[in-house]
Amino acid sequence: MAETRLTKTQEDQWITQSQVFQIYNHFDNLPPAQQHLRLQLFRDEHIDYLTKGLRHLAPSFCVLDANRPWLCYWILHSIALLGDSVDDELEDRAIDFLDRCQDKNGGYGGGPGQLPHLATTYAAVNSLVTLGGQKSLSSINRGNLYLFLLRMKDKNGGFRMHDGGEIDVRACYTAISVASILNILDDELIENVGNYILSCQTYEGGIAGEPGSEAHGGYTFCGLATMILIKEVNRLDLASLTDWLVFRQGLEGGFQGRTNKLVDGCYSFWQGGASALIQRLHMIVDEQAFVSDEVDENDADSSQTSADLSEEEQCLGGNSPHADEHCSHEDGAGQRNPSDQVKFERLGVGSTGRRGNAETEPLFHCIELQRYILLCSQVEGGFRDKPGKYRDHYHTCYCLSGLSVCQYSWSSNVDSQPLPAAVFGNYSKNLLEPVHPVYNVVFERYKEAREFFMLPS
Ligand SMILES: CC(C)=CCC/C(C)=C/CC/C(C)=C/COP(=O)(O)OP(=O)(O)O
Ligand SMILES: [Zn+2]
Question: Which residue has the CA at smallest separation from atom 14 of ligand 1?
């Protein structure tokens, strides 16, 4: 009889599941008092690990590494999620360092004098938004940044990561996200981005990094958030996207990034955050299903889809070119009017935090994910991908971001306190700050930036 051999991935999956279930069994057999302790967020230890990480970069941030703005973002955002902040001196150093990464022609490089890059530009802008305040926010040269974004724009609609660099969904997201949060997003930047993202949605339902590649959680978050920001989200096949997303949560409670791969703590945000966005778009998914049923029945052409959507829904999701007819508020000089923004309040992330009609029920098992994050990813100071791996700042940032998404997933207002049942473990010790799920910055810091850059409220 032929021998059945496991592939390397199947073998690794088996090992991971054994380790995870051993942790869960061990936990289940602990006395309640110890369970209680084990379920806590090791808040002080995390702050210590994060602050030491930033201090290690300071005073001169002079290590030779193209990742430094990312390290700043992962660390500062994690500290903000934990409801804390760095001292004035460290804050000043971080702002000065990021300023030195700013290119004279716009955008941020990985270090002073390095080539400006969209990923480090996103990391630098989100770091400065997270720090907040006059000095930090006004250090961003928005005029030059806009010119940098235009230079990165390709004629196919997508963006290049850097001069002569690769075009992918990450580049689209980082460009559109910074343009949006800095209030410099216009029609020229948006043109054809939606077509590019659409060409990356795969037969599985998720979104790939580029056309023809495999659907992946990181790119799915980037593609979905981009489509929301450019008001074209209802052009995606949201039903199959939802289907793909929810099946990425493993028996372990954590998410995998793609089909048949291993769970990993960082997907708590990439997949969990994308699910939170979809949850607030539920109304559009229903509308799409309704419209496509009708289209099937009537054998009508696809233009009926946008025509059938109510004006409000087109404003929410956008559906170019019709979105412009119904919802655009150009001032005649081609400038977008402040009221031409996505109606975030309908996504559950409005400036007031009101959710409008969005559904309240999360699409995935939020408690199971919190259990994975707290018991399998959390170490005493920092978070890791999975048991057996080392902690790092990237996983710390995205495990905490995912944890926050889970805790607020049942809340009817983004900035209202979650119900105790939504927070796994010790409520007062574990509760994090809420994030704006489109940009992944703490909601309060987003609101401050929005006011500072005079976005509509
Ligand atoms: C904002 C921004 C820059 C977002 C980046 C999004 C992101 C995390 C993309 C993931 C890239 C990718 C294909 C990882 C696969 O790694 P792997 O093969 O090691 O992991 P896997 O087995 O889990 O797929
Ligand atoms: Zn990871």
Answer: 218
